[in-house]
Amino acid sequence: MASSPAPERKVYGVAAFNRRLASYVGRIRDIWVEGEISELKRNPAWANVFLTLKDTETGACLSATMERRRFDLIEPPLREGERAQMLGRLQLYEARGELSFRLATVERVGVGDHAAALERLRVRLAAEGLFAAERKRSLPRFPRAVGLVTGVDAAARGDVVAAITTRFPAVRLVVAETRVQGPGATTAIVGALNRLTAREGVDVVILARGGGSFEDLLPFSDESVVRAVAGSPVPVVSAVGHEQDEPLCDLAADVRAPTPTAAARLVVPDLDELRSTLGRAGERLDGSVARLLERDRARAARGAERLSAAPRLYLERRRVALDRASARLHALSPRATLARGYAIVRAAEAVVRDAATVTPGSSIEIELDRGRLGARVEEVGP
C-alpha cells in the first residue's frame, strides 16, 4: 500500500505555548469571584500576598494573589475562613504554567460584613478605654447575692444554678431570664442587666449563654450591651461564648469565663475548701498556742531560777565591793603608815608638822604603830 504524506504539524515549545496561552488568559479581566479564603500566606518581605479561594460546597479551589500594599489597606485585616467577593483578572505564570487570579478589589460578604463592622466597633470602643485592663474590678470574695442574666429555659441557667448551690449554698441567686438572640435581644439584655445591678445586695452579675453561632452571639457585641456591661456598678462576669468565641461584651466585662459553670466557680468560693482551710488554720492556731505556752513556761522557769539565785549573787557582789572598799580604806589609814615605820609627833595635842612650831625644852609625844613615847626637845634644826 502506498502511504499518504503526513500532514504538517504545528508544534509549540513549552515556553512559546505558555506565552501564547498567557496572551489569551490575559484578556479575561474584571471578573468577580466569590469564595472562602484559605491558605492565606503573607510576609512583610514579600511583594505579594498569596491565598486560595475555595467553594465550600464542591471544594473547588482557585489560587489568587494580591499586591501586599493593597492587601494591607484592607480594614480590618482579612482572615482565613472569611467569605469575600473579589474582583480581578486571570494571569498565567509562564515559567511554571500555573494559572492564578490577580486581585484588585476584595469585599467581605455575609458574616464577613458583620465581622468587619464588629472590628471597627471594637477599635472605636477600645480607643475610649472600655476594654482597658486598669478599669477591671476584682470579684467579691463572699458576695451577698449573685445576679444571673440568661436566656429563658437556657441550659446555661441550670449549669450556673447547679454549680453555685453545690459550691456555696448560703449565697442568694437572683435570676433574670430574658431574650438573648433575635429581634429585641439587645434591649432585653440591657434591661435585665440594669435591673439586676440595681437590686440591693447583688454584688456581682454573670452574663451567661451556652455559646452559639456567630449570628446568635451578635447581640452580645451590640454597642448598647457592651456599654451596659462596662458601666455596670458591680463587677460583671461574661460567660457568653465558647473558648474560641469572643463577643465584645467579653472584652468589656471585668472577668471572662469560658463556660457558665466556670463563671459560677469564679464568683463563689467552695464551701468544702473553706471548711478544709479553716480546719488547717485551726490546727495551726492550736499548734501556735501550744508553742507559745511552752515558750512562756520555759521563760518563767528561767526567771524563777534567776530570782532564787539573785539574793545570793547580790550578797556576793556586795561582799566583794566591801572588801575592795576596806582595802582602799586600810591603804589610806594612818595606822597603815605607822606600820611601815613612821611616827606621829604631837605637841600640846596638836600634830607637829613644822619644827619651827616647837622650842627646845618643849615636851612632845611620839605615837608609834605600837605604843607612845614621851620626849623633850633638845634642839630645833632647820
Q: What structural class do you assign from the helix and strand content?
A: alpha/beta
Q: Helicity level, as a percent range?
A: 25-40%
How many distinct helices? Answer: 10
Distance between the termini: 188 Å
Largest sheet descriptor: 5 strands, mixed, barrel
Level-2 CATH architecture of the largest domain = 3-Layer(aba) Sandwich
Radius of gyration over C-alpha positions, nearest whole angstrom: 54 Å
Task: Describe the structure concisely.
α4 (155-167) runs parallel beside α8 and α5 (185-197) runs parallel beside α6. This protein folds into three domains: 14-109, Beta Barrel (OB fold (Dihydrolipoamide Acetyltransferase, E2P)), CATH 2.40.50.140; 116-271, 3-Layer(aba) Sandwich (Rossmann fold); 343-376, no CATH class.
Please give a handful of descriptors for the protein shown.
single chain, 382 residues, alpha/beta, OB fold (Dihydrolipoamide Acetyltransferase, E2P), Rossmann fold, 10 helices, 14 strands, 24% strand
